[in-house]
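Hi all, long-time lurker, first post. I run a small reading group and we've been trying to get comfortable going from sequence to structure in the token notation. Rather than ask abstract questions, I figured I'd post a concrete chain and ask someone more experienced to write out its structure so we can walk through it together at our next meeting. Sequence below, copied exactly:
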Amino acid sequence: MKKKNIFLQLALTAALLASTFSTTAHAAEATTTRDIPVGGSGQVEMVGTIEPTILSVTMPSFVPFNISNSLSTQNKVISPRINVKNNSNVPVQVDVASTKVDISKLKNTTWSNTGAVNDNQIAIGLKQEDTPNTMPTDLANTRWLKDNQTEEMNVMVLNSNQEGAMYVVGTLGQKVSESATFNVTPTFVVSQTSGN
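-- Answer (accepted) --
Happy to help. Here is the structure in token form:
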């Protein structure tokens, strides 16, 4: 069985790009009072405090995986589990903002943005873990990575201090060489959300 050694570089360069700091304003309890007569006027000093919420998500920055047509499942990729942890005290969503694909070493091969491939195409995506510690065998609910396109594709929502996992999944056409490597580099963005 020939296996293609592939590298997915999960670029967290922009991991905290959107909504790195969100703000919440709240008021302290009133400490003094005074009467304002009917028809009179008065000034009230109001002071607000802004508390920044720091968003922090931990995930690997490098994920190697193998892809081969010899696998009997719909998913032709073997990848390690990608653990993702929300270290924030607020819910966050993890999105892919863009993906850079380099398949120059795969001669006569093109990229599929949809997961549907012809004989000379390859497609890679991300799939949230369904069964704990089990590599997915099918491609249902895969979020397909789109080559050199700006996108706001949600891959995961995590509540405060929640852990989650996803896998690299994919497929390739029968004529795609299985003796070369290629690089897929998605840029992830973390932002605050209302939860799942």
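A couple of things your group might point at:
Residues 10-27 have pLDDT under 50 and may be disordered.
The first strand starts at residue 4 and ends at 8.
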